Amino acid sequence: MGQGPSQPKPGTKFRVIGAGMSRTGTKSFSEALTILLDAPVHDAGVESIGGPKHHRQNWMEVMRLAPNAKTSADDKKVDALLHKLLDGYCATVDVPANMLTPELLRVYPDAVVIATTRDSASWYRSLQRMTAMTTPTYVHIIVYWIPVFGDFRKHFLALQKVFLWRLGTKDLALTDLQRHEDMIREWVPAEKLIWYEVRDGWGPLCKALNVPIPDRPFPHNNKPDDGVYYFRYFMIFGLSLWALVLGAVYLAGYMIWNQFFR
């Protein structure tokens, strides 16, 4: 939340796999990478829910195929979809891409893996706030008529299957940040893995990417209040669309009754 889809730039070299868990500063990290690498970043959390239709469809297909891949042919299908999704971007961040770090390394073996991290307790508090807002069934119903959110329920269920595949649970718990980070250490060679906290600002990130520190403040996006603002906006928008739909149904019913039954 708090950041929209970005446009790919043809010819852009893919350089960074953002492996950090959601709610570890991934939105700030994404904007920082955009500034430092002067290229668009594919925010999977945004693109898989609210991006262009082909991005949403391809991410759904990746989430369907990857947990069930058994053969090299299956792997090649997943690889091809990931390459198609990330063509024209310099990096990717957030879920579901962060759950697919081994697959992304297979597609981009020269990329560096940067995992954003934070204290487990504060991470879980942030996750709970977001989960409490976005997961109730009534939310999925309210946003149904918003074009980019019409498949939100399907996306949510597919994402739960990915969590079950990789973390052994559909609903993230306090211990899952550590579990995810332990898996990253297993997946990624130590020389290719960099841990990063966004509170540390430009210095460690610029050093990791071997780029100069820019003459501008470090971006800090997606603060708790930002999430509440966007949630309320989409709830009001969704309810307004429901009012239009129900109003149109009522009007059509009234006209039919008046014409044929009155």
Summarize the structure in words:
Keywords: Membrane, Transmembrane, Transmembrane helix. Pfam families: Sulfotransfer_4. This is NAD dependent epimerase/dehydratase. The protein is of the alpha/beta class and 262 residues long. It has 2 domains: 205 residues, Rossmann fold; 39 residues. It is 56% helix and 7% strand. The chain has 11 helices and 5 strands. Strands 2-3-1-4-5 form a 5-stranded parallel beta sheet, with helices on both faces. Helix 6 packs parallel to helix 11. The longest helix is centred in the C-terminal third of the chain and has 37 residues. The termini are far apart. The model has no long low-confidence stretch (mean pLDDT 88).
Using brief descriptors, characterize the structure shown.
single chain; Rossmann fold; 2 domains; 262 residues; alpha/beta; 5-stranded parallel β-sheet; 11 helices
Describe this structure in a few short sentences.
With about 260 residues, the protein is of the alpha/beta class. The chain has eleven helices and five strands, in the order E-H-E-H-H-H-E-H-E-H-H-H-H-E-H-H. It comes from [Torrubiella] hemipterigena.
Number of separate domains: 2
Q: What's the mean pLDDT score?
A: 88
Low-confidence stretches: none
| Total helical segments | 11
Approximate shape: globular
Largest sheet descriptor: 5 strands, parallel
What is the CATH topology of the largest domain? Rossmann fold
CATH homologous superfamily annotation of the largest domain: P-loop containing nucleotide triphosphate hydrolases
Total E-strand runs? 5
* Helix-strand pattern: EHEHHHEHEHHHHEHH
User: Would you tell me the structural class of the helices and strands?
Assistant: alpha/beta
Gyration radius over CA: 20 Å
CATH architecture descriptor name of the largest domain:
3-Layer(aba) Sandwich
